Structure to design on (228 residues):
């Protein structure tokens, strides 16, 4: 939570010096993981994820976006449809602290200051840095932590948003993150002797998914072509 507060503060300090409009708000939803443990469903939120986001609306078609999200992920082989995974019986729980910067593109023009109801699908991608517990299998079917780990990921987010008022927008999004690590589930530890504790597919990195709603508030100087 400290990291989230610092990021939001860092973002908000300089914004009054610009003439474009901005949006600030929150995210709440669910998280799930895709990897070597548990079921293989791509969208299956089973843990809570919350965060904050900020957008700098550079045009009616694109925005620079920053966000910080904290979510728990977990999986259990007993919930899988794969008989080999059920027999293996692995399980884990981890926490993701994510910071993301990138660009959001709307399919249609989206200017919340026009005072008219508008809505549009959107895409977001960019660069994500996240921290997690560096797990390893201490005993059969039991995970332990070897401290904090970190990695980068590529976010691929599809969403839909609409204005509730001239200043408030509500959105829904599903965002998969392809990570550059294979150990958020403890299946491929990097510590000394870690090769003795590996399992699963070591040629495929882990994914995690945040699905939920966003609520943002627009402010700042309206563009000169708006009716604000």
């Amino acid at each position: 939570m400290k990291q989230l507060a610092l990021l939001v503060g860092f973002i908000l300090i300089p914004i009054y010096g610009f003439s474009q409009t901005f949006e600030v708000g929150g995210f709440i939803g669910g998280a799930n993981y895709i990897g070597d443990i548990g079921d293989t469903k791509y969208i299956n939120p089973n843990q809570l994820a919350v965060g904050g986001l900020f957008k700098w609306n550079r045009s009616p078609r694109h925005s620079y976006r920053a966000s910080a999200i904290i979510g728990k992920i977990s999986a259990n082989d007993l919930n899988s449809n794969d008989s080999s995974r059920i027999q293996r019986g692995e399980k884990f729980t981890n926490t993701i602290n994510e910071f993301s910067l990138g660009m959001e593109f709307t399919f249609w023009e989206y200017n919340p200051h026009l005072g008219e109801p508008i809505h549009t699908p959107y895409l977001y991608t960019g660069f994500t840095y996240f921290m997690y517990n560096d797990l390893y299998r201490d005993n059969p079917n039991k995970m332990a932590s070897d401290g904090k780990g970190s990695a980068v990921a590529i976010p691929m987010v599809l969403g839909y948003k609409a204005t509730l008022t001239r200043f408030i927008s509500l959105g829904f999004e599903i965002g998969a993150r392809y990570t550059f690590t294979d150990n958020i589930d403890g299946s491929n530890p990097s510590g000394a002797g870690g090769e003795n504790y590996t399992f699963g597919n070591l040629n495929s990195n882990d994914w995690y998914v945040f699905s939920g709603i966003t609520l943002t508030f627009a402010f700042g100087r309206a563009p000169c072509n708006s009716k604000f």
